[in-house]
Amino acid sequence: MIKKISTIALATVAFIALTGCGEDKAPEVKTYKYTTVQVYEKSCIKCHGKHGEGNPKKKTPALNDRTPGEMAEDLYDVKNGGTSGQSSGTDHEVMEHNMQKLVDKGYDYDINSMAEFLSYLAKTN
Ligand code: HEC
Known about the structure:
Largest sheet: none
Number of domains: 1
Bound molecules: heme C
Number of helices: 5
Strand content: under 5%
Number of strands: 0
C-alpha cells in the first residue's frame, strides 16, 4: 500500500515537472538581470541625477516631471527608436544610442516599472 502511494506521488511529481505546471499557457515573462531600482542607480543616475531632476551640465533632461504614462511613452521611444507605434514623436538620438549600450551591458528594464519608479523619484524631490 505504502509503495503504491509513493508511486503515485512520484508519478505526480514527474507529471508536474514534464508539463512545467502549465507554464506554456502563461504569458512569457521577460527576466532582467537587475531590478529597476538597481538599473537606475547603476546607470541612469549618473546622467539624470539622484531624483531624476536632470543635469544641465550634461545636457540631460529631467525624468521626474511627467506622469508614468507619459514617461512610459518616452521610454518606448528611447528603447525602440520611436518605431514602436507608441512614439511621443520626440527625437532622442543621443539617448537611443546610450540605451542600446546600456541594454547590451545588461541594464535592461521593464518600461512600465521604470516609469513608475521615476514618478516615485519625483515625489522624493
Ligand atoms: C551617458 C549619460 C546618460 C545615461 C547613462 C542615461 N541617459 Fe537618458 N539621456 C541622456 C541625454 C544626454 C538625453 C537627452 C538627449 C536625448 O534625448 O537623446 C537623455 C534623454 C533621456 C530620455 C528622454 C527624456 C525626454 O525628455 O523625453 C529618457 C526617457 C531617458 N534619457 C531615460 C534614461 C534611462 C531610463 C536611463 C538608464 C537606463 C538613462 N536615461 C541613462 C543621457 C544619459
